[in-house]
Design a protein that fits this description.
Layout lengths: L1 H6 L14 H6 L2 E6 L2 E7 L3 H7 L10 H8 L2 H12 L6 H21 L28 H18 L1 H22 L6 H27 L2 H13 L5 H11 L1 H19 L5 H28 L3 H16 L16 H4 L3 H5 L1
Antiparallel strand pairs: 1-2
Length: 347
């Protein structure tokens, strides 16, 4: 692809590579070899083998020229040669450094005396100076960026089906546990207490399920996102909405499956409209908690730190849900935290 860009579209492609294989090496038009800050060759790649043969450095037959050049201009080759001459692995490093300097100086001198020498400071008359107006600006529209990012994120979900299976299995097992604990609650005072406990348990479970799914995954994506955004590959908003919408089927199905398992088994209001409202609330809790965990994940570059601080940043809000402490008993100076609690609205 890079060769096609260079030859068919008249682009200049600069590749920095330390150990290219022979196929890659044969794709190069020009070759620049650097050692100790000195240019020891800068000309057509196809002339390099004959050039170094002419100054006493013959590339062995059937060898990759790139591997030979790397060995020839490395300090390790001089150290190995000295070890073979002395028969000892302990060689004076000052001597190695001096020999290496002499070798590179020789390459530098031979290259500067060669007819193949190029002036690397020369600028072609076809090249125009780079100005601020030439700075890269995204030419693709918001919708196009969103489409590509949503497709990529969706494919990532499909390529890791085992993760989705584990999440669904965990959801079902937790729902079954809730059913076993709160099955067919009665309508007496004790039953009402069980209903309140089950509602808070479901709210807490759905919220923590969403938080865990984000907090363990997004910190790994964060460095990639920062690198790509800083390289102007796309903007932040299409990435965010692509991530949210591509994961929407999962964000809806997980709380909906949980709700379908527990609702009638626990013995809540059998009216269909109440059941639908119940599922909608679970979906809202799940997505709101995912958003909050995205804030936490985006705020810390260290995944371990984000995971460690998550309980500290979440559990206090549980206290303001209205289950542990009545809303009337919350001190006035803590009232603001009550209205920031996802658990309060869900419960």
């Amino acid at each position: 692809m890079l060769v096609d860009l260079a030859k068919k579209e008249n682009r200049t492609v600069i590749t920095t590579i330390h150990q290219p294989n022979s196929d890659i090496y044969e794709s190069f038009d020009k070759l620049l070899l650097l050692a100790r800050g000195k240019i020891i060759y800068f000309n057509k790649a196809e002339l390099a083998v004959d050039y170094f043969s002419g100054i006493g450095f013959q590339c062995p037959d059937l060898s990759n020229p790139a591997d030979y050049f790397m060995t020839m201009m490395s300090i390790e080759s001089i150290e190995l040669e000295a070890q073979s001459q002395t028969g000892s692995v302990f060689v004076e490093q000052d001597r190695i450094q001096e020999e290496y300097k002499k070798t590179i100086d020789l390459f530098d001198m031979k290259y500067n005396q060669s007819e193949l020498r190029n002036d690397h400071t020369q600028i072609s008359t076809d090249v125009k100076p780079f100005s601020a107006s030439n700075k890269f600006k995204a030419e693709t529209g918001w919708s196009y960026q969103f489409g590509l990012l949503a497709k990529r994120n969706f494919l990532n979900l499909l390529r890791l089906p085992q993760t989705s299976y584990v999440k669904l299995l965990t959801t079902c097992l937790t729902a079954i546990f809730a059913v076993l604990l709160f099955f067919d609650t009665t309508k007496d005072i004790q039953g009402i207490q069980n209903v309140q406990g089950s509602l808070f348990f479901i709210t807490m479970n759905i919220s923590f399920n969403a938080i865990q799914n984000v907090i363990l995954i997004f910190p790994d994506e964060r460095p990639v996102f920062l690198r790509e955004v800083n390289n102007n590959m796309y903007d932040t908003t299409p990435y965010f909405w692509a991530k949210v919408i591509s994961e929407l089927p999962f964000s809806i199905s997980v709380p909906a499956i949980f709700g379908c398992i527990v609702y009638y088994a626990i013995g809540y209001n059998p009216a269909a409209e109440t059941f639908v409202i119940f599922l909608c609330i679970l979906i809202l809790i799940y997505n709101a908690s995912s958003g909050y965990s995205l804030i936490i994940s985006a705020s810390f570059s260290d995944k371990q730190l984000a995971v460690t601080l998550t309980p500290v940043l979440i559990i206090p809000f549980m206290l303001f849900a209205g289950f542990f402490v009545s809303s009337d008993n919350i001190p006035w100076y803590l009232k603001e935290f009550e209205y920031l609690s996802i658990f309060k609205y869900g419960y």
